[in-house]
């Protein structure tokens, strides 16, 4: 059985207390590796290493820092098959998705911020003939990055890349549910020559290592992606410590389909938006509102496409719908399907656990599920299920669509499907969300601000927003 290790001061290390957690392959239900459940003692070693090396890392020329990060990105590409397979095994997502999306984006994230830092300029403000102000943006120092299980290496690198590029030393914690690709990345960093201590990776769960990490006095900024309740907990335990916090939290994203959309293209993309990664993407559109004149036609075409999704072993090339990430998560999703029925919902397709034959007979598979007949205020439509479950509802006017879309505590992402340009602009402006896609979904430009409003988060990632988060701003005013 493979033993995952921490990455501290450039070396792979066992945890000080020798405590381990089981790591399960969700497609088979079998424990296949063990991961350190790290503690404050491991954190101390990591902070010491990070503090020691950070000034020299920040002191490298931008070109040199970028060059080293580029080597890490290249090494990820060199190992892309191995990483994609590891991600599919660890998370349950189809190998094809892991290869095309997760691992592709992991190296793209690092490459993007390695380049971005060489273009990161700051402002100056002239005060006539009297004085000039200029802005310095220095690295924060030692920063913490905490990521979730749904896009393991993709989101892990999305955080560490800007932090490292900006000259910080990083203590990062991947999800204990999907630790494998972050572990493989530690080996890749050693191979690529990342200076020891610049990146430290500690494995383990929230109580054992998450809490010590977020409350450590020497860690001055925390970039967190995960659930809204964990985000609230981190806000509470760090209150009064004056840390920079970036919180990317849950979503319950609306998809607005207008009668004048490009019908076939919209149906295909709304299926993708609802069920990619088994619906376990924070940006997935799980509440689908359809303008009444096309409701029935859309419903039939949508169901047909959902039923055609191939559920199967994540390692098979033709699988489109893999396993859910864990048994507790599968049980949570199934309990929401039950709740939806208690709330009066009608299951149009799906609704059940799938038992596959062979290697995956004990895996955590759930059918892609579509539900109708629920009102907007029920729990099924208000709470984040984070699985292959969506609801469909009709609407009559633009105003009603916007009210329904905005009627939850969340505000992460949304998509609008229409050929009416004025309506697209008007509705996009009215939607309470950090991200609005029009006639597309998950079309990403890494320079754009990324994040949510309301209970979906605080702060923005992406492009300059991320580089600003990972730097401290200082104004220098010089009198002529
Ligand atoms: P989670 O909140 O349970 O865990 C996220 C990370 O936080 C994990 O690494 C976990 O170990 C860690 N953690 C748990 N308790 C902690 C504590 N007390 N202190 C510090 N760290 C702690 O979330 P999850 O179940 O892994 O991920 C799913 C959630 O993430 C969903 O709500 C989803 O919407 C959200 N998400 C949001 C975005 C976004 O960009 N907004 C992206 C992906 C996922």
Structure description:
- By secondary structure, this protein is an alpha/beta fold.
- It has two domains: about 1-250 and about 455-480, Aldehyde Dehydrogenase, Chain A, domain 1 (3-Layer(aba) Sandwich), CATH 3.40.605; about 255-440, Aldehyde Dehydrogenase, Chain A, domain 2 (3-Layer(aba) Sandwich).
- Helix content is about 40%, strand content about 25%.
- It contains 15 helices and 25 strands.
- It has helices at about 40-60, 60-80, 80-90, 95-120, 150-165, 180-190, 205-215, 230-240, 265-275, 295-305, 325-340, 380, 400-405, 420-430, 465-470; strands spanning about 1-5, 5-10, 10-15, 20-25, 30-35, 125, 130-140, 140-145, 170-175, 200, 220-225, 245-250, 255, 285-290, 345-350, 355, 365, 370, 390-395, 410, 415, 435-440, 455, 455-460, 470-480.
- The strands form seven sheets. Strands 15-18-19-14-13-21-22 form a seven-stranded mixed beta sheet, sandwiched between helices. The chain has a six-stranded mixed beta sheet with strand order 10-9-8-11-12-24, sandwiched between helices. A three-stranded mixed beta sheet has the order 1-5-4, with helices on one face.
- β8 (about 140-145), α5 (about 150-165) and β9 (about 170-175) form a beta-alpha-beta unit.
- α4 runs parallel beside α5 and α9 crosses α10 (about 295-305).
- The model has no long low-confidence stretch (mean pLDDT about 100).
- The site of nicotinamide-adenine-dinucleotide (NAD) has 30 residues, from α7 and α8.
- This is 2-hydroxymuconic semialdehyde dehydrogenase.
- It comes from Kangiella sediminilitoris.
């Amino acid at each position: 059985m493979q033993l995952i290790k921490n990455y501290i001061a450039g070396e792979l290390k066992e945890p000080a207390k020798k405590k381990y957690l089981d790591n399960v392959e969700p497609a088979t239900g079998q424990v296949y590796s063990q991961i350190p459940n790290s503690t404050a003692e491991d954190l101390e070693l990591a902070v010491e290493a990070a503090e020691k090396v950070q000034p020299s890392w920040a002191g490298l020329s931008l070109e040199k820092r970028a060059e080293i990060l580029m080597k890490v990105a290249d090494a990820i590409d060199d190992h892309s098959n191995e990483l994609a397979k590891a991600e599919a095994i660890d998370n349950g997502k189809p190998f094809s998705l892991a290869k095309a999306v997760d691992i592709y984006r992991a190296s793209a994230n690092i490459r993007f911020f390695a380049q971005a830092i060489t273009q990161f300029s700051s402002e100056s403000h002239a005060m006539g003939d009297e004085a000039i102000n200029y802005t310095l943006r220095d690295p924060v120092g030692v920063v913490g990055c905490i990521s979730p299980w749904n896009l393991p290496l993709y989101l892990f690198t999305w955080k560490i890349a800007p932090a490292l590029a900006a000259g910080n030393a990083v203590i990062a914690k991947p999800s204990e549910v999907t630790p494998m690709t972050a572990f493989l990345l530690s080996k890749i960093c050693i191979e690529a020559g990342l200076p020891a201590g610049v990146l430290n990776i500690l494995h383990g769960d929230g109580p054992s290592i998450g809490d010590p990490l977020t409350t450590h006095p020497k860690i001055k900024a925390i970039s967190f992606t995960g659930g809204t309740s964990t985000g609230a907990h981190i806000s509470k335990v760090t209150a009064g410590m004056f840390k920079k916090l970036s919180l990317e939290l849950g979503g319950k994203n609306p998809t607005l389909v207008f009668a004048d959309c490009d019908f076939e293209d919209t149906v295909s993309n709304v299926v993708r938006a609802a069920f990619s990664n088994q619906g376990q993407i924070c940006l997935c559109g799980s509440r689908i509102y359809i303008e009444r004149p096309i409701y029935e036609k859309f419903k039939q075409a949508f169901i047909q496409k959902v039923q055609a999704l191939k559920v199967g072993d994540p390692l098979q090339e033709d699988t489109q719908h893999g396993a859910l990430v864990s048994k507790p998560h599968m049980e949570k999703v199934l309990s929401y399907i039950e709740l939806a029925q208690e709330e009066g919902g009608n299951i149009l397709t799906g609704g059940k656990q799938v038992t596959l034959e062979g290697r995956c007979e004990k895996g955590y598979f759930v059918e892609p599920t579509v539900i109708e007949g629920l009102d907007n205020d029920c729990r099924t439509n208000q709470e984040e299920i984070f699985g292959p479950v969506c609801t469909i509802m009709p609407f009559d006017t633009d105003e009603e669509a916007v009210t329904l879309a905005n009627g939850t505590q969340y505000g992460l992402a949304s998509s609008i499907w229409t050929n009416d340009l004025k309506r697209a602009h008007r509705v996009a402006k009215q939607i309470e969300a950090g991200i609005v896609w029009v006639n597309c979904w998950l079309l990403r430009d890494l320079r754009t601000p990324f994040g949510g409003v309301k209970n979906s988060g605080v702060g923005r990632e992406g492009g300059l927003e991320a580089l600003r988060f990972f730097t401290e701003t200082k104004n220098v005013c010089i009198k002529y």
